[in-house]
């Protein structure tokens, strides 16, 4: 079973090792989808949505929302941001009955990266 929670955050960045429009400072209203895979526990849940929300807020949103991402991630492409998010969440979401399955990061409504670990 897959359980997904959707989040939004706004942040600025620029791509220092890129030659083009995104080389300049700019921002995005990101959409983040965090998907957990597992089997329902004795309470009938793979993971409590409230617990998932708290973990993502504490580990990711409180750091990235309204930030200059270059201060956190050297080359903040959507791919690198997705991997950073995965690394922040993977251990926190590992349980006997579930684990992190996928991070989807929408930089725009048309540009998305899906990351499922290595």
TrEMBL record:
Signal peptide: none annotated. It is an enzyme of class 4 (lyase). It catalyses: 7,8-dihydroneopterin 3'-triphosphate + H2O = 6-carboxy-5,6,7,8-tetrahydropterin + triphosphate + acetaldehyde + 2 H(+). Its EC number is 4.-.-.-. Binds 1 zinc ion per subunit. Pathway: Purine metabolism; 7-cyano-7-deazaguanine biosynthesis. Keywords: Lyase, Metal-binding, Queuosine biosynthesis, Zinc. Its cofactor is Zn(2+). Coiled coil: none annotated. PANTHER family: 6-PYRUVOYL TETRAHYDROBIOPTERIN SYNTHASE (PTHR12589:SF7), PYRUVOYL TETRAHYDROBIOPTERIN SYNTHASE (PTHR12589). Belongs to the PTPS family. QueD subfamily. This is 6-carboxy-5,6,7,8-tetrahydropterin synthase. It comes from Marinitoga aeolica. The lineage of its organism: Bacteria, Thermotogati, Thermotogota, Thermotogae, Petrotogales. The gene is queD.
